Amino acid sequence: MNSYRVAAYITAYEEPKAIQTCVAAIQNQSIKVEKIFILDNSRRHPIALPDWEKIWVEYRPENIGVSGGLRRGLEWAIEQGYDFLWAFDQDSVPAANCLERLLQTYKIQYIQDCPIGIVGPTAIDPRTNWVIEGAVFERDAFLPRHPPSSTEPYECDAPITSGSLISLKAAQMISPPRADLFIDGIDMDYGLRLKLKGFRNLIVPDAILYHHFGNPIRGRCFQRDVFLQKYPPLRHYYICRNHTYLAIHYARGWHRGSSVLRRLKYMAHTMILVGLYDPEPKSLKLWACLIGTFHGIVGRLGKVWQ
């Protein structure tokens, strides 16, 4: 059935059991990938996997992040002559027919002469049943793209990285993922740049990916449920910095000012939730939100000390 050459890619970092589970799910697909490329950012070499002939691991203990890893994965797949790179975070598990449904959707759209950049799955956090939606950029912010249909593929500007089936023909038409983002927001920037180049990015409702999205904390405020993702300080820093920078970067005219106000509102909201509900020490997380937002506004990017 599959006339395309597909390689899978995983960004790995210090969680060998998660990698093993992700690899097993990829190998269990109804349509087989030719090879799995793993970019291991761990300081140690924790991965012990079967079938090494179909798995290539590149160790980068200096940690080049999600963006650097995805850049390397795309470069490798293009050099090897693949048609698609199926990209994953290590904490993701695709359903057994996920790749089949993504390729079916691509073929239908290709026949209709629609240039496709990314075909993405519906990502669900199995712990909460939350659907992790793709994003659209509207005026001054990236916003969730709510599915208009439970059955038909639909467009967004940027599917999440994990589970994205990236057309390597399209990938060669734009610059690679930005290394200076390091982690967080890479998918938003890369997907939107494909869209601006004339490619369509689609989400397939019945292509399911189980993906752990943060560490959710549930609280109560004024008799309402409140949810907070429990992140370490560095993750708060990158979220605040990169999302702020990208919102300002893609906004036009006076919307740049409103994008700053939106990000300041997000920062304040996050800091309040951290202060009220995060059980871990809070001072570094609050500082990370502040300095990350400031660095996003002034455009100071790159990897901070890990």
Structure, explained:
The structure is a single chain. This protein has 306 residues and is of the alpha/beta class. Strands 1, 2, 3, 4, 5, 6, 7, 10, 11 and 12 form a 10-stranded mixed beta sheet that branches. It has a two-stranded antiparallel sheet with strand order 8-9. Strand 1, helix 1 and strand 2 form a beta-alpha-beta unit. The protein is globular and about 50 Å long. The mean pLDDT is 92.
Descriptive terms for the model:
alpha/beta, single chain, 25% strand, 8 helices, globular, 306 residues, 14 strands
Rg over alpha carbons: 19 Å
Number of DSSP helical runs:
8
**How many strands, which pairing sense, and closed or not: the largest β-sheet?**
10 strands, mixed
Helix and strand string, N-terminal first?
EHEEHEEHEEEEEEHHEEEHHH
Mean pLDDT: 92
In helices, the fraction of residues equals 25-40%
Low-confidence stretches: none
Instruction: Give the class from helix and strand content and strand pairing.
Output: alpha/beta
Total DSSP E strands = 14
Q: Shape, please?
A: globular
State which percent range the strand residues make up.
25-35%
**Termini distance?**
45 Å
